[in-house]
Design brief:
It is a single chain. A hairpin with a 2-residue loop joins strand 22 and strand 23. 5% of the residues lie in helices and 57% in strands. The longest helix is centred in the first third of the chain and has 16 residues. It has 314 residues and is mainly β. Strands 2, 4, 5, 7, 8 and 9 form a 6-stranded mixed β-sheet that branches. Strands 11, 13, 14, 16, 17 and 18 form a 6-stranded mixed β-sheet that branches.
């Protein structure tokens, strides 16, 4: 073999012997890292070449290309990652198109818990005893669906709903202070409890005038007895007040609740009663309208009749 050919071959193979390959390693995320579904995972790698320059670093989930970077620091953001287990690698390629694949990094993305909020009633709502409370929530899941929503008063289960809009009607609620929560459970049996909502239900008396009847008529100067019925769902009646319009007539603290309005002048009147209970609740009755007519003065005159004749003495 000619010396020139031999020298060329030696130089050719010598070049291969001296050629360097890229070095690449994933620095984030860490191996065996854990994330929540819907997270954004930032992949970062270091890459270098002893005898040249790195042209690009490509990031993969298994065989799937996620992104590529051509400038150090080499990174790629993987957004809205669904639940699953993934093997991530980075492939560095130098200017001579020589490539190296990093060791794999395994990450686990767990299912995201449901998101739930009570939208009704509002926090610090005050209601009256005997009311019906419509509990309504919004509930959602990033990587699945909500299977049930349960409604609680403290630790006590009130009811549940399996279909949006998620709601429950708590009927005839007694007086008291309540802390309401809702728990959403998804199809993966992952649950989330809402922030608590506090409500106050106050007792309130039941109030009505039972006498006189509406549209009753009286004569001026009459004494009118006003009788009221008052009851309390969760306490006692403290006092009952009697009014003509805004004019205070009187009050009583004992049942039967009555007040006698004496020597009532002619006029039209609107009567109401107001009750307060031991918890400070109050209620005004429906007005009762009465009319007091002027008294009729009758002037009597003797009726014409036969006059007696005077007897005359004979």
């Amino acid at each position: 073999m000619k010396k020139s050919v031999l020298l060329a071959l030696m130089m050719f193979f010598s070049g291969f012997a001296r050629a360097a390959i890229p070095a690449v390693a994933i620095t984030t995320p860490e191996d065996q890292g854990t994330f929540t579904a819907g997270s954004s995972i930032t992949m970062t790698a270091t890459a270098s070449e002893a005898d040249g320059a790195i042209s690009s670093v490509a990031f993969y989930n298994g065989p799937t290309l996620l992104g590529k970077s051509s400038k150090s620091p080499y990174s790629c953001a993987w957004d809205q990652v669904p639940a699953g287990t993934y093997a991530l690698t980075a492939v560095a390629t130098d200017i001579d198109k020589v490539s190296t694949t990093s060791s794999a990094v395994t990450v686990t993305v767990t299912s995201a818990p449901p998101v739930i909020d009570i939208v009704s009633p509002a926090n610090d709502t005050t209601l009256t005893a005997g009311s019906s409370i419509n509990l309504t929530v919004t509930a959602s899941e990033f990587n699945g669906s909500v299977s049930t929503v349960k409604f609680y008063n403290g630790p006590t289960l009130l009811g549940e709903s399996s279909r949006s809009p998620y709601s429950y009607v708590w009927a005839n609620v007694p007086a008291g202070d309540y802390t309401l929560t809702a728990v959403a459970t998804d199809t993966n049996k992952i649950s989330t409890t809402s922030s608590p909502v506090t409500i106050t239900v106050t007792s309130s008396p039941v109030m009505a005038i039972i006498s006189p009847d509406n549209d009753s008529a009286f004569t001026a100067g009459s004494n009118i007895t006003i009788t009221a019925s008052a009851s309390e769902n969760n306490g006692t009646i403290r006092e009952v007040y009697f009014y003509d319009g805004t004019y205070y007539l009187g009050s009583t603290t004992k049942s039967p609740y009555t007040y006698t309005w004496t020597h009532v002048p002619a006029g039209a009147y609107s009567l109401t009663v107001e009750a307060t209970d031991s918890s400070g609740g109050d209620l005004v009755s429906t007005p009762i309208d009465i009319t007091v007519n002027p008294a009729v003065n009758l002037v009597t005159t003797p009726s014409p009749g036969a006059q007696k004749k005077n007897k005359t003495k004979s």
